[in-house]
Amino acid sequence: MTNESPVRIGHCVPDAPDVDVRVDDEMGFEEIAFTDLTDYAVLPSGSHEVTISAHGETASVTETTLDLDDDTSYTVLAMGVLAKDDIAVTAMVDDPGKVPDGMCHVRFAHASPDAPAVDVRVADGGPTLFEGIGFRESSEYAPVDAGTYDLEVCPAGTDDVALALPDTILEGGSAITAIAVGQVEDGSLSAVIAEDTTMTLAADD
Fold first, then answer.
1. Is residue 78 within a helix (H) or strand (E), and if so which, with residue range?
2. Centroid of chain to Cα 142
3. Half-sphere exposure of 107 toward its Cβ, with a 13 Å CA cutoff?
């Protein structure tokens, strides 16, 4: 155990300005724009008070306590709608396990505040990777053969494509999180594809 915890922050609030994130009253991450996901920063393990505010301001729009385990990586997403005063933080443990060279471990996070629960599948009759993922929820990691895929995000239980993700590259030996962001109503629904920390295995391991 290292007594340290890598943490990164994602801004998924569509109507919020750039934000600053303070950790225990000290600036931790500065001027994060909507859809941005920071690099990992190492924090001491344990409990930390985290506040998020508009860039350059001190008044917070949301506060939370993060309890970080030793030697564990986290993705922390701010979600919600500023105008509705419902911004909250969701912390996900980045633990894709050991990934073989010819595989990619894939996870999906739903951060679109006005989208229903969704399924994620491979287009043209391919398999469904994730089912019924609701707002502020994330899936477990799923192992997928490395390659390039046309992915579709559909309201759960339907064939209506709400978001198409063509030519999505899933590299061998890697782990990714696909984060649905934006809003359905104004046509801004999109996805952020982020590479997660991982341990790789040789193909014959």
1. strand 74-79
2. 15
3. 22
| Dihedral of the alpha carbons of 44, 48, 54, 58, in degrees to the nearest 10 | -110
**Residue range 85-117, pLDDT digits in tens:** 999 999 999 999 999 999 999 999 999 999 999
Please state the φ and ψ torsions of residue 83, each to the nearest 5 degrees. -65, -25
What's the pTM?
A: 0.93
Helix (H, G, I), strand (E, B) or coil at 37: strand
Side-chain-side CA neighbours of residue 200 (13 Å): 13
Q: What is the DSSP letter of 98?
A: E
Q: For residue range 105-149, list pLDDT tens digits in order.
A: 999 999 999 999 999 999 999 999 999 999 999 999 999 999 999
Residue whose token pair is 């030519």: 167
| Local structure of residue 35 (DSSP, 8 states) | T
Rounded to 10 degrees, what is the CA torsion of 119, 133, 118, 78? -130
Cβ atoms 90, 191 nearer than 8 A: no
